[in-house]
Amino acid sequence: MTPEKLAYALVVLALYALMCGAFAWQHRRRQAEAQRRVAALLPATPGVPAWWVTYASQTGQAEELALQTAQALHTAGVPVRLAPLDQLSLADLQQADRLLCVASTYGEGDPPDSAARFARQVMASAEVSLSHLHVGLLALGDKTYAHFCGFGRALDGWLTARGAQPLFERIDVDKSDPEALRQWRQHLAHLAGTSDLPDWEAPALQPWRLRARRHLNPGSTGEPVHHLELVPASGELPDWRAGDLVQVEVSEAPGAPRDYSIASVPADGAVHLLVRRSRRADGGPGIASGWLTEGAALDETLMLRVRAHGGFRIGENARRPLILIGNGTGLAGLRGHMRGRLAGAGPLPDAASLPRPDAVAPMWLLFGERQSACDAHYREEIEAWAHQGWLSRVDWVFSRDQAERRYVQHALADSADAVREWVGQGAALYVCGSLEGMAGEVDRTLREILGDEALEDLAAQGRYRRDVY
Description:
By secondary structure, this protein is α/β, with parallel strands linked by helices. Helix content is 36%, strand content 22%. α11 (408-414) packs parallel to α13 and α13 (435-450) crosses α14.
């Protein structure tokens, strides 16, 4: 073996060892987290039937509130079982005595992905009687949507029609309204026979500094898109995982922080955001996006916190092939996953010349925007990764580069055989971007390619995850 080949082999072996170490560390971390949650929910009174605490979550908020609910009941001595709604069968409902559910809504009244199979299969059971079941329901929503708390209301209506008895009147929550959450805690305390359940305050907002900002699409016919880099004003960078969010508060809208997908991982040394300036009905810039993209000066301080987004994290998909689908600023969440996978294989290879080690599972990016000349965000970075083999395939889809509009769902449909092949080889699907248009059309296309049941099974397995807005 020549010295050059020996050196190359040693480098590949070193990268493989680093990757294995990273996977092992992540696996131990997931196991420790799972053991912590399970230990906190061991039956407090052996032999006493457990209460079901379930959730239908899209962004992770319903899941976190359900976990807090289950832990509070356990602390008060109530045995509980915690699970996403999709894991609850009709037989479970027929055997249960008490059910507490935290249900969010996807889009205009639809069930979140973690409840789609429950809605299609269990809620289709019209004849079953649940008159023995006692139910408490917390519905999460946003009043700016026409079907406020749509799925929570539909679930409540179905349970009531089956004869289930309410433990208390359904509580509808508008954008994390603290008064509604206080009512939920009061009902839990009454049911558990205690008066000292802890408050569920969100982590405090912390001061961060705007370190860098770069306009990515000059000349575009769309609104300006900026890449932002944020670092803590003092102290160390907090930990987060690919798929997580930040909540940013601006002075003009105190108490109403905006969610943004994180486009980086801690190894990057900063929180990266991809922000498009929005327009209000009166033509003025959006309060938060206008300030972030134009109003705030470099080195100015802003208040934010990192928020876990369990529904869009890599989870058990760390070793699976990934099909990453998105449009517009949805590239932020997908870029987070690409950089997360690359960071797990060693130093982020922005300028590396080494090919991708075969042990790193492949990634396929499908991304849509307006025009190739202006709107190919992070093109240099993405094409370098593709050239080096870190990305197995990249499909750029630009809607206005031809007479007939073309979007990511069209590229998916054209590659139906490849999609089925990747999914057959264990791939996970991650979708990030606009709720109106893209997400619904991509979902319909995937259902045409894979079938309704197969796609819902993927969602139940955590292999179909969406972060849409």
